[in-house]
Amino acid sequence: MPIGQWWSQSFAMMPASSVSGWYFNHPESKYFAVGKLAADQIKDLADRMELPVAEIEKWLAPYLDY
After folding, report:
1. Whole-model pTM?
2. Which one, out of 38, 52, 53, 60, has a CA that is 20 to 30 A from the CA of 21?
3. Each residue of 35-50: pLDDT tens digit?
4. Sign (positive/negative) of CA torsion 19, 22, 23, 28?
5. Are 13 and 5 in contact (CB under 8 A)?
6. What's the pLDDT band for 1 if we cut at 50, 70, 90?
7. Structural domain includes residue 49
8. CA-to-CA distance for 5 and 7, rounded, in angstroms?
9. 31 by DSSP, 3-state: which?
């Protein structure tokens, strides 16, 4: 299929639900992991989302550090 049928004039992909990306790697690349969440972070999130701490803990249980 010609490239003009996949891209709009502003280079948006069509159909809009398409997903694409460029992936690069390098042998010296370093990747990091996000650490576990502390109780104060959960409380702050619960306050900002106006949800009970228990609800946040239920959904984020695998990521808790307590």
Report:
1. 0.52
2. 60
3. 899 999 999 999 999 9
4. negative
5. no
6. very low
7. yes
8. 6
9. coil
Exposure letters 9-28 (e unless 16+ CB within 10 A, then b):
eeeeeeeeeeeeeeeeeeee
The distance from CA 40 to its chain's CA centroid, rounded to whole angstroms, is: 21
Mean pLDDT for 11-28 is 76
Mean residue pLDDT of the chain comes to: 83
Residue 54 lies in a domain: yes
In the chain, the number of structural domains is 1
Which range of residues forms the domain containing residue 66?
34-66
Per-residue confidence at 16, pLDDT binned at 50, 70, 90? Answer: low
Which whole number is the average pLDDT over 32-37? 85
In a domain, 41, yes or no: yes
The alpha carbon torsion through 7, 12, 13, 17 (nearest 10 deg) reads -150
- Residue 16, domain member (yes or no): no
